[in-house]
UniProtKB/TrEMBL annotation:
This is UDP-galactopyranose mutase. It is an enzyme of class 5 (isomerase). Pfam families: GLF, NAD_binding_8. The keyword Isomerase applies. It comes from Leptospira bouyouniensis. Residues 149-350 form the UDP-galactopyranose mutase C-terminal domain. Gene3D superfamilies: NAD(P)-binding Rossmann-like Domain.
């Protein structure tokens, strides 16, 4: 059997391990520097409240890809869950993403869908033809006032820079709707795993040919991988090359944890749009599992900051300076014929869980196809 090394036990690594293990032709070592599997999707029950906590922040599974949805459902039960986010701005609670309720409340109107659409179009900056930045995208599609209220402050806190420095793609993640649909996502399928994400990933890795080593710090290009036929690397691309060309910019988040009796905020996620409030959002995790009963609650204020060397990278900033550094690392990657880079950190892209799974399934299939001819 051929030996394969997988660096990282998040979704990318687990999907590769599962697909290769199922062929019966590979012996797979999975290593992760943390003391748990699941990467940033890791979930764990809080010992005091018994609430299932998303240890690295809220993860709501959503996809329109039927293959991905069917695949993930092989590894656990997903309960229906619709993420309905609220946003507080100047002491008022609004519905997020921007929808007819948000528009009517914000402007003190009672527009129907087409009136609202015309109104918002009249607010939008029609001189912007091809929006490149976050700010241009917002000004064109929702206008200055809604932009300043719901996106400017939040985004500055989240990304630590003016929204004019950020790409339009970040804002394109959020829909704008002219009806009362307040579902945060547009996808066909959405849910939360009944037993958490770590149980799903555990099941993916649960195979006699897969050996997991936790607390193992992989050394990147300095690691001796001579015994392996192939390596799948899902860690940060710059770390693999010992930061030879410099560090890529990431935002990280940290949480302040609170417990209380009963229900703290009545919703899973509430965003705080005002720049003066230092946190971006508050998440109360028992609302991610409305089918469970908990008399107590645990909730977190989420703060964002620049990633330092000891922090866990979360959000790739992808500023111009980062993209130039990335090109240098990517040209090194093309010289490596037995290492595949995949996942959010190894490709330095802002990917969701469903993107990660889709790409890992494709990557595993391509690898198996090529390897069958070797
Ligand atoms: N955003 C914002 N206000 C909000 C929610 C989101 O300005 O109330 C912006 C912010 O820049 C954020 C981006 O939209 O980074 C994408 O939001 P999303 O909810 O997709 O971020 P994630 O859940 O990945 O943190």
């Amino acid at each position: 059997m051929k030996k394969v090394l997988i660096v990282g036990a998040g979704f990318s690594g687990a999907v590769i391990a599962n697909t290769l293990a199922n062929t019966g032709n590979y012996l797979i070592d999975v290593v992760d520097e943390r003391n748990h599997i699941g990467g940033n999707c890791h979930t764990e029950r809080d010992p005091l409240t018994n609430v299932m906590v998303h240890k690295y922040g809220p993860h709501i599974f959503h996809t329109s890809n039927e293959k991905v949805w069917k695949y993930i459902n092989l590894f656990g039960v997903f309960k229906p869950f619709i993420n309905r986010v609220k946003s507080i701005y100047k002491g008022q609670v609004y519905s997020m993403p921007i929808n007819l309720h948000t528009i009517n409340q914000f402007y003190g109107k009672s527009f129907g869908p087409s009136e609202a659409k015309r109104w918002i179009e009249s607010q939008g900056d029609s001189t912007i033809n091809d929006p490149k930045t976050f700010e241009e995208q917002a000004k064109k599609f929702v206008g200055e006032k809604l932009y300043k209220a719901f996106f400017y402050g939040y985004t500055k806190k989240q990304w630590g820079t003016e929204p004019q420095n950020l790409p339009a793609s970040i804002l394109k993640r959020l829909p704008v709707r002219f009806n009362y649909d307040d579902n945060y996502y547009n996808d066909t399928y959405q849910g939360i795993p009944k037993d958490g994400y770590t149980a799903i990933i555990q099941k993916m890795l649960d195979h006699p040919n897969v050996k997991i080593s936790l607390g193992y710090r992989f050394l990147g290009e300095k690691e001796d991988v001579g015994e392996y036929h192939h390596v799948f690397y899902t860690g940060p691309i710059d770390a693999y090359f010992s930061f030879r060309y410099g560090r890529l910019g990431y935002r990280t988040v940290y949480f302040k944890e609170y417990r209380a009796d009963g229900d703290y905020q009545g919703n899973a996620v509430i965003n705080f749009a005002d720049e003066e409030i230092p946190y971006t959002r508050v998440h109360e995790h028992k609302h991610f599992t409305p089918w469970e009963n908990h008399s107590e609650t645990i909730y977190f204020e989420e703060y964002s900051k620049e990633t330092e060397s000891s922090d866990i990278p979360y959000y790739p900033k992808r500023l111009e300076i980062d993209m130039n550094i990335l090109k240098l690392y990517e040209s090194e990657v093309t010289n490596l014929n037995k290492v595949t880079f995949l996942g959010r950190l190894a490709t330095y892209r802002y990917l969701d869980m469903h993107h990660i799974i889709e790409e890992a399934l494709d990557s595993a299939e391509k690898f198996l196809e090529l390897d069958s001819h070797k």
